[in-house]
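dumping this here so i dont lose it
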């Protein structure tokens, strides 16, 4: 294990990596319930999508583990599955088979871009201060996800966002779990986040939040996935290209943002924010997308919830091995895993958000051409509910400010190219 995953070099142990992998799984296991419900609205079988979700997540995460040795898990991306269902199928009128075709072809192009280092060049083109800002922005983003999932913050009638009813079941359980997790962490208890999730889930049973159904059975056989249900009849149309490009664009920058943020949080990034084994990591993401489409699910991407495993001590691909194995087990033990409510995982996401704020102290806010783009990157991620959009507007403002202040030497060629692409995207959209 040590030779394969370099455990001692990264200051970790098998036990710590296993606990980190379990923590990551528990904070992202909601996708096993959400994705089938989302894609079934497009006419797909919920049972088949559940199987595809678990299998694709396991395969992509294991590729990440052994190829890149990073504690990053992958699964069908939230937002991209909504685009798949509500825009491509229900609004644009494409069949789900055509939508899967777009995802599959996007994944193949991702593989090519990864092999020729295009995506690696994009990561290197992001300035150091923006890379630190990405980590901070992701921290705020996943904090918002946790608070929203628990009902602690809601879409208020008088304001854009406000506090929910904190005396209600789910918010009260989440706040209780947050208090427990913070006390455990402050007391330096190993595995504090995981223990917090488990205790909160147990407390939720008498509160009626953790629902144990009648006739509860631990084991269930998985449904057959929708293998290679593709439709290539529309691939040469302009509308299909729009769909294809949207999948491609969002996946590229969500993945880049997640890898940069998690590597920074784990202390694995180099002095200039370089990610170890980034080519292999991007390839794992690309393979996951193509395999996921072939199995019958929407775009697979690196998950920001992996930060919870990093916070629990994960530093190597061994944590991803544990997460991948749990996704395989979920195929047969889905009733057990789906018992954990969102209110029980919300505290973990909030605490991880705190951990990910730390790089903000290293951002150069004294220089407006560095500080303003970093600030925009940080705030747009949670406010726009998109990691990718945070990177877009952060980099655009960076190039804009550097150019207007005649600091052209700070702008790399790739940054110029990306800025032009981003402007064209805004104009065309």
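and the seq i came up w/
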């Amino acid at each position: 294990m040590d030779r394969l995953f370099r455990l001692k070099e990264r200051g970790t142990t098998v036990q710590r990596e296993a606990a980190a992998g379990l923590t990551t799984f528990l904070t992202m296991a909601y996708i096993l319930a959400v994705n089938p419900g989302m894609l079934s609205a497009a006419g797909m079988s919920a049972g088949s999508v559940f199987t595809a979700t678990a299998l694709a997540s396991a395969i992509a995460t294991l590729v990440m583990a052994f190829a890149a040795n990073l504690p990053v898990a992958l699964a069908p991306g939230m937002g991209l599955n909504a685009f798949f269902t509500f825009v491509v199928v229900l609004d644009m009128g494409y069949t789900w088979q055509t939508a899967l075709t777009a995802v599959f072809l996007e994944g193949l192009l991702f593989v090519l871009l990864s092999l020729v280092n295009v995506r690696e060049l994009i990561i290197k083109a992001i300035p150091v201060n923006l890379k630190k800002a990405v980590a901070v922005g992701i921290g705020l983003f996943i904090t918002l996800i946790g608070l929203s999932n628990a009902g602690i913050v809601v879409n208020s009638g008088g304001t854009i966002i406000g506090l929910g009813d904190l005396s209600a079941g789910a918010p009260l359980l989440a706040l209780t779990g947050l208090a427990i997790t913070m006390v455990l962490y402050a007391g330096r208890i190993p595995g504090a986040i995981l223990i917090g999730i488990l205790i909160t889930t147990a407390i939720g049973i008498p509160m009626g939040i953790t629902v144990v159904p009648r006739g509860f059975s631990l084991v269930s056989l998985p449904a057959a996935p929708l293998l290679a249900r593709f439709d290539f009849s529309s691939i040469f149309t302009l509308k299909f290209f729009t769909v294809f490009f949207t999948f491609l664009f969002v996946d590229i920058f969500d993945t880049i943002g997640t890898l940069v943020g998690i590597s920074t949080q784990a202390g694995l990034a180099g002095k200039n924010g370089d990610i170890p084994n980034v080519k292999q990591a991007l390839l794992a993401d690309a393979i996951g997308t193509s395999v996921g489409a072939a199995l019958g699910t929407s775009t697979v991407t690196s998950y920001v919830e992996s930060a919870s495993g990093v916070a629990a001590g994960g530093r190597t691909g061994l944590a991803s091995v544990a997460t991948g194995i749990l996704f395989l087990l979920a195929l047969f033990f889905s009733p057990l895993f789906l018992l954990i409510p969102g209110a029980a995982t919300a505290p973990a996401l909030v605490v991880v958000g705190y951990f990910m704020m730390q790089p903000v102290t290293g951002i150069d806010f004294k220089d407006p051409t560095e500080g303003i783009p970093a600030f925009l990157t940080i705030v747009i991620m949670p406010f726009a509910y998109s990691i990718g959009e945070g990177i877009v507007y952060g980099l655009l403002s960076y190039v804009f400010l550097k150019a207007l202040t005649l600091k052209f030497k700070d702008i790399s060629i790739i940054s110029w190219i990306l800025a032009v692409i981003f402007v064209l995207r805004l104009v065309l959209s």
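Residues 359-428 form one domain.
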